[in-house]
Fold these 3 entries.
Entry 1:
Amino acid sequence: MAGLDLSQLKAEIVRPTLKAIGLWSLAAENLLTGTALVESGGVYLRQLGSGPALGLWQMEPFTHDDCWQNFLKFPAHHSLADAILAMQSHDQTPSGQLVSNLRYACAMARVKYLRAPAPLPSAQDAIDLSSYHKRWYNTQGGAADEVANIPHFADAIRA
């Protein structure tokens, strides 16, 4: 076995993180678990090759910084920002923590999805979860294949 146990990732990182920042739902839990699986295989902490993506959720530093500068810094998101800041360690840069701090990386991936104008898909629909990931997290120009990733989201649902 290589990588993290998906059930443990879901139960020990994703669920408690989402609850701590006040954004838990079963749909969010399955979406974030599936996202970690399709983005990094639950294995890689840095993008393979020369890409900039970091952590299990493969967030780019630019995306991380944009979430803070253009969303979390606004007064309407003050409580959410405080909850996420409480997860940070103080010995690394915030974007550097996408690699080493699983809770922080998960919270930031949830913020990325929170900014999407569409509501979360059904918690039990792997097809919709994969499509939502492709549209709102990976983007249309990204490498993710929403059809090929359906089984990964199904695994996340079962975990």
Note: The mean pLDDT is 95.
Entry 2:
Amino acid sequence: MTPSRSLILLGATGAVGRHVLTGALNGDLYERVTVVTRRPLTAHQGHPKLEVCVVDFDNLAAHTAEITGTDLINAMGTTHKKAGSKERFIQIDHGYPLEVAQIAHRNGAHTCILISSLGADPGSNNNYLKTKGRLEQDVQALGFETVVTLRPSMLKGERDEVRLGEEAGKLADRVFGFLIPARYRAVDVQQVAKRALKAAQQRQPGWLAIENEDIRTP
């Protein structure tokens, strides 16, 4: 008999996270999906697999008993503009996800999937890429059996916010996409979500980075 598996999902209201949630709820891999969120979830209300854990991210210790599952997928992220400051951005994109990963690992999770970014590097001079790289590095050090990092380029698909840089990039991708190397082409949010769930299902031991061109490959 296949052991039951359960998912902890961060970032379920974001562009990628919404599709991860739908796929996890509709698929056969997980018996339970726990969404860790700062506000109540309106989608999928009443779904028998869904548990919503509304938390104060500045007091995650109060929710330790609720953050349980065999797998963790982190699709949480923001921008410097939305965060309001460099320090707040680091807290949202590094501090909170790392603390959730620490709790999940202590509670027995063995698989962690991170939605990161093309060019993520803890030594980067770019704060966005440096923060993503630091999260990758620090999660790897926690001791999960499996850690998979997805590094997408620009994301295309529905968003709740307009990011002008990404919109310009997506326009260039539509017009000149055939000239752009596969590593840098825009990738659909649904492709990223599907690849994250596939990585969780495969559960390859150790650490694996999946670059943008491989995310785009079916």
Note: The chain has one domain: 6-156+188-208.
Entry 3:
Amino acid sequence: MNAYLIKKVLNNNVIICTKAQEEYVLIAKGIGFNKKHGMVLQENQTIEKVYILDQKSQQDHYKTLMELANDTIIQAVIDAVNIITNSVMKVDNQKLVISLTDHIIFAYKRLKQNQLINNPFVVETKQLYSEEYRIAEKVIERLNHVLAVHFPEDEIGFIALHIASNTESLSMREMDLINKLINKSIFILENDLKHTIDKESVQYQRFIRHIQFLIKRLRNGESLQKTNAFEALLKQQYPQCFNIALKIMQLLQQELKVKVYEAEVIYLTLHVYHFMENH
């Protein structure tokens, strides 16, 4: 059976259908115009996007979101999803369309009410997820055009995190935690070294990538090989750098509630040393 049975018309651009006992969201410009419950839609009709919502909670949430939005907002969401899915990123369409729809609808409502949310991790996100950030810039540019608004750069960071969480095996919550831990690590560095870290520097990019992969290793229970002689040398030659690295390690251990292997301190000490030398 190459046809969809219409269950609900959410608006001119989005309808909920069933086919072979599965529930689908069909998206296309004008697809819901003059359509009603019970009508049949042929599969060969122009359909821009097809999403299967296989969990009832997803179906109910998406329907609620669609009812909160007008056609202009829905078209903006469609454009945003298209920009991402047409990029080189491999994304889970079902997961992305729900999270992005949710975010865009409420970000737009907040913007119209002048209730802007500050994103303290824009720089970190730009460094850690440069490709996702580049795509997010296109998404925000399109949203600004379609919705006739001007989203701040903070929103680019939020959209980039949505894309990144969709392509990586990390949830938004885990990514937020990584960003917070990077921020706290930088605070320790700046406080103890008594100077501001240049967040545009190559050294900063290397450091936050190191922290990101360190957190992943810790979560996976992976450990680096320890070199006692090198550790003793660093501790003797660069005691301040070693102590700062140790503070950061203790922070990670406390926040992540995992064991941090001593070998990690060695590699982190080298990063701290470069920050101190390049100032």
Note: The first helix runs from residue 56 to 68.
